[in-house]
Amino acid sequence: MQIDTDKIDDAALALMYLTLHDHCRAWKQIDWEVTNRLHEKGLIGDPVGKAKSVILTDDGLKHAKRLFEKLFTK
């Protein structure tokens, strides 16, 4: 089976929107490979560190909201 990592990244970013707090922070309980790809795409700040959350960039926030609405709302 071939996995579409872009779809995985979209779903992870949408779920980060669900855990959003302090306007731009999301809990980083997502696989490290996924958070690294999201960082490389410029959607979140650097996930490396002891913090339990990551900062979504402005583009990341917009993209996360759009994906959350697309994937998880009626």
From TrEMBL:
Residues 4-74 form the DUF6429 domain. It comes from the Bacteria. This is DUF6429 family protein. It comes from Pseudoalteromonas haloplanktis.
